């Protein structure tokens, strides 16, 4: 599955707090990311590049800190554009992010229910 925690980050989180910590972090990530993706999509529709950049930057930090590298890569590329106030392709990227978030949800359900 593409939207899973990288093996090195998974080992680090296991050592820090095991499955209970990972479950808690994934729950918080899923909750916050769903809101940020929805807010980002609304901001794209409104042409609010500053709000889009905030959502993308926040999502990027969360995804990368959890070792969700594929999502982090997409967000890093999008963040380069949003920092320049360029929203070209942002709508499609948010659709991809929403799909990846559902993959993370499925990954959590399978491995950290």
Automatic annotation (TrEMBL):
The modification Phosphohistidine is found at residue 57. GO terms for biological process: phosphorelay signal transduction system. The keyword Protein biosynthesis does not apply. Pfam families: Hpt (PF01627). PROSITE patterns: HPT (PS50894). InterPro entries: HPT_dom_sf, Sig_transdc_His_kin_Hpt_dom. Residues 18-113 form the HPt domain. GO terms for molecular function: protein kinase activity. Keywords: Phosphoprotein. This is Hpt domain protein. It comes from Turneriella parva (strain ATCC BAA-1111 / DSM 21527 / NCTC 11395 / H). The lineage of its organism: Bacteria, Pseudomonadati, Spirochaetota, Spirochaetia, Leptospirales.
């Amino acid at each position: 599955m593409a939207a899973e925690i990288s093996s090195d980050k998974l080992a680090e989180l296991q050592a820090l707090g095991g499955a209970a910590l990972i479950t808690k972090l994934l729950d918080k990530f899923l909750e916050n990311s769903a809101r940020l993706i929805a807010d980002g999509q609304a901001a794209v529709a409104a042409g609010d590049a500053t709000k889009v950049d905030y959502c993308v930057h926040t999502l990027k930090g969360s995804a990368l800190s959890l070792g969700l590298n594929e999502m982090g890569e997409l967000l890093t590329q999008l963040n380069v554009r949003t920092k320049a106030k360029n929203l070209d392709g942002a709508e499609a990227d948010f659709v991809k992010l929403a799909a990846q978030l559902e993959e993370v949800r499925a990954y959590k359900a399978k491995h950290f229910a």
